[in-house]
Amino acid sequence: MSSCRDALLLACALAGTAALAQATRFDGIGRGATPAEVAAWDIDVRPDLQGLPRGQDTVRRGEQIWEAQCAFCHGSFGESNEVFPPLVGGTTPDDIRQGRVAGLLPGANTPVRTTMMKVAHVSTLWDYIRRAMPWTAPRSLTVDEVYAVTAYMLNLAHVLPDDGALSDRNMREVQQRMPNREGMDTRHAMWPGQAFGALSKPDVQGSDCMRDCPGQAHVAGRLPDHARDAHGNLAEQSRGIGATRGVQTTAQAQGATPVPATEGAALMPMLQRNACLACHAMDARLVGPSFREITARHAGQADAAAYLAGKTQAGSQGAWGNVPKPAQTLPEADARRIAQWLAAGAAP
Length: 348
What we know:
This protein is mainly α. Among the domains are: about 55-175, Cytochrome Bc1 Complex, Chain D, domain 2 (Orthogonal Bundle); about 255-315 and about 325-345, Cytochrome c-like domain (Cytochrome Bc1 Complex, Chain D, domain 2, Orthogonal Bundle), CATH 1.10.760.10. The protein is built from 13 helices and 4 strands. The chain has helices at about 1-25, 35-40, 60-70, 70-75, 95-100, 115-120, 120-130, 145-155, 170-175, 270-275, 290-295, 305-315, 330-345; strands at about 55-60, 165, 315-320, 320-325. The strands form 2 sheets. A two-stranded antiparallel sheet has the order 1-2. Strands 3-4 form a two-stranded antiparallel ribbon. Strand 3 and strand 4 form a beta hairpin.
């Protein structure tokens, strides 16, 4: 009897110590999240539409929002540009009927795979647009605006008609027209539970797909330099889907003429502060042209500094391809100084 009492007292003491340790582990740091804060982040929508909020909007309304907030990256018709992959294309009416995109089947050899070719669930589009778009202001769209934008994207892929609409009430019906709705395999069990037919143990090794992989490619030959421009600049020749570009093949694209060194290093903090380096590098193309390409194009131009300062602030489109340059909010003095640096040779 005494041993049982002692054991019980020891258990209570240990439990009390554990509770105290848990309560004081981060003493004075943070607080528990409120229900409203949890609800603000608990916004995921599952493929079975669990978590989908009520709402609706039309394809026509979605087109208006798309042109205002989506087209500068994704194109008016989902064709995108050199940076962002195409969203629409590569699907057929047969794919919509069958629920499996033929362009993804073995042997199809499709050069470009668009979003609408691959995605299996409307909820995936809806959830991602809601939490991540537009790129410059994530989660700024209302619930109805997310329905509208998703509806327009589905219309571009001929899943919804021009006068169609998307809502929480018809999404299951629309799901049955997704071109690749039968293209997702849940046997990997990465989604837990039996709701999606998952196995008891996830295939974390990827053994289901990592089979019969080809060996490392061996390059047997390359295009000689004298023949690179025989058919024009491949980077400016569109392919079948979206704005996929080939390699730069003109002699001018092989590299700009070096410019003399100046005090460019002093400008780096300003370029970083104004996010210029997110799209531009010194010698290589990123989202936009390199600083060396810009200065080479405007070499000898009398009004280069004024012209570049105006473009920096107002933005432009078409001067360097399909990727638009949004208007910038940097101070006018910064824009002039950057433009003068570019006009003088953009030395590092």
